[in-house]
Every structure is written in C-alpha cells, then in structure tokens.
C-alpha cells in the first residue's frame, strides 16, 4: 500500500514534469481518465492496488553504486527519500563476488557492474557515491547505451596528471598514503554488541555528522553476526584492494561522452578538489554542483541529496521528453 504523502508527492512531481515538457502524462493522465484520483490531504490511509501498480510502472530506474566499505542497504534513508518517483536497484556489496575479484584499474568490477545493468533490460540513471560514482563514470565511457545519465556524489574525476601520480604511487609503493588504504589497515573489525559498535562509530570523524537514521542503518546493515558479537560486513581486505587498485587509466575518451554527467561535491569535502571538475568542461553535457556537507554528505544530508537528484534527473528527463517530441 502507498501512503497519501507519497501519492501526493508523485502527483505534484508528475505535474511539474508535464509542465516542463508541455505534455499531460503519467499520473495527470490517469487522473483525467478516471483510473486514479488524488487522495485528500487528511484521512486517507491507502490507495487501490491498481493505482500502486501504475505508480510502480511509471517510476524511473536508478542503479545506485555505494562508496567503498558501505553496503548499499546503509543508504536506506536516501533510497526512501527518492520513492516513489524513482525505484532504486543496487548490488549489496561490490567486489565480493568471487567471479569478479578486484583487479588493477577495476576492470573486473566493471564487468560485475555490466552484468547487473544488462540484467535490468533498460537504461538507467546511474548514481554513485565516491567509489560508486567513479565506477559508473568508467562504465558509461565504455557502455553509454546502458545509461540515461550519471550523477557522481563526491566522486573525483581524475585528470591525466592525477592518473600519472596514481601510476607512480603504485609502482613506487606509496599508494596507501595517497588513498584511504593506509587508514583502513588495522581498523577495528569486531564488536561485542550493537551498542558498543554505535558508540565506537559515533566517535569517529567520518561518522560524526551522520544523520541519526543513517548511523542506525550502518549499524544494522554494515555489521553481521560473528561468534558472540558482530563484525564488519564489507570485507576489509576487499576494501583495501579497491583503494590500492584505483584506476590510473581511463577506459574511454571523456569528451566523447554524450549522456549527461553531473559531479555533486560536498562543500567541505577533502576528497573531491576543485580541479577534479576539469574534465566536465570537455564533455558535451558535463555539470558541476555543490551541496553542504563533507565527503559523506549522502549520509549526513540524505533528504537534501534526494532533492538534488530529483532536480537533476527531472531536468534531464524533461530534456529527453522534448527531444523525443521534436523527433
């Protein structure tokens, strides 16, 4: 069943998209045809199952790729904030399928992602945080037909100079100082209880600004039972391997990318620096945006992150509708 709040939000969003495109589509058309009626602001608890099926059919697909070390379910509040306009598909944990072991330049991780995207049988909006955004960017360079567009949430776009430095760091053995791999080594993995884990992570700078519900989601989905206690679900060695194999090669030619791509940087981020937006200027449809928060802003401000995603994807989708109408 779908709540009235979601139904009314979907109706307003559809009216907004219809106004931009000059077309009366989606929920507005269903309403006019008598297949669906906008519920009153108060007193309504459920909608007909038929209406729910229409809403699910009309929602747009996002494939979300998580940051390194953070299973997708830890982004629960962000996903809920995107519903019902967008349905979010994702992998639980990238890099944990033995068929696709982490390798240099993340080539196997790209193959793992391609398998997921091909299984959806329709292009998606690719949204990724940190490592996940970089993965979508690389996938879009190789297989743009799998995407409507890509949004990178505090994910750097390494320049050719950056990649040269990464290559040298790998060869000379200081990649752990260049990436978070060094900080991951020796990290605590085991906890006696959820309460102990909560107190531990709440005291860490990386988690200190998390929305309380996002911290709870990390405790719930970032840990798993182990013996008499809990341990990290995201294998620490896999996390380190992903950092150490950060790409020093680009799989395609960035200026040739024709789908829209946006980098959304956290204003206080120390991961994505101003020069990381340079390549966007070479792309036909590259955009740079900023949100309040640090590198972890999708966890710190999930509602604002969802609003920015709806703004970007809604505008891009309106452009697609206009292009189809002109054709």
Automatic annotation (TrEMBL):
Keywords carried by this UniProt record: Hydrolase
Domain AB hydrolase-1, chain residue ranges per copy: 62-307
Name listed for the protein in its UniProt record: Probable hydrolase
Transmembrane segments: none
UniProt KW DNA repair keyword: no
Organism placement in taxonomy: Bacteria, Pseudomonadati, Pseudomonadota, Gammaproteobacteria, Pseudomonadales
Hydrolase as UniProt keyword: yes
Entry-linked Pfam families: Abhydrolase_6
Single GO MF annotation: hydrolase activity
Source taxon at top rank: Bacteria
PANTHER family cross-referenced by the UniProt entry: MONOACYLGLYCEROL LIPASE (PTHR43798)
């Amino acid at each position: 069943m779908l709540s009235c709040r979601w139904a009314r939000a979907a109706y307003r969003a559809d009216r907004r998209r219809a106004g931009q495109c000059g077309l009366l589509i989606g929920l507005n058309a269903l309403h006019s045809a008598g297949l669906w009626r906008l519920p009153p602001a108060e007193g309504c608890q459920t909608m007909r199952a038929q209406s729910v099926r229409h809403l699910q059919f009309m929602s747009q697909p996002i494939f979300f790729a998580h940051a390194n070390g953070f299973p997708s379910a830890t982004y629960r509040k962000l996903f809920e904030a995107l519903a019902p306009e967008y349905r979010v598909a994702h992998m639980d944990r990238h890099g944990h399928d033995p068929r696709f072991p982490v390798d240099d330049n993340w080539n196997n991780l790209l193959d793992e992602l391609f398998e997921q995207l091909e299984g959806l049988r329709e292009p998606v909006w690719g949204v990724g945080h940190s490592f996940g955004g970089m993965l979508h960017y690389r996938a879009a360079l190789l297989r743009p037909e799998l995407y409507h567009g890509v949004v990178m949430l505090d994910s750097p776009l390494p320049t050719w100079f950056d990649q040269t430095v990464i290559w040298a760091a790998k060869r000379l053995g200081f990649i752990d100082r260049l990436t978070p791999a060094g900080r991951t080594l020796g990290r605590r993995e085991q906890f006696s209880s959820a309460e102990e884990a909560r107190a531990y992570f709440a005291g860490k700078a990386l988690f200190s600004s998390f929305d309380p519900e996002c911290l709870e989601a990390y405790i719930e989905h970032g840990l798993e039972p182990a013996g008499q206690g809990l341990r990290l679900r995201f294998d620490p060695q896999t996390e380190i391997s992903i950092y150490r194999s950060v790409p020093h090669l680009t799989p395609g030619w960035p200026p040739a990318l024709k789908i829209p791509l946006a980098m959304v940087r956290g204003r206080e981020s120390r991961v994505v620096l101003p020069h990381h937006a340079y390549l966007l200027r070479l792309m036909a449809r590259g955009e740079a945006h900023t949100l309040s928060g640090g590198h972890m802003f999708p966890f710190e401000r999930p509602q604002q992150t969802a609003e920015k995603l709806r703004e970007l994807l809604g505008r891009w989708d309106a452009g697609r509708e206009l292009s189809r109408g002109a054709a």
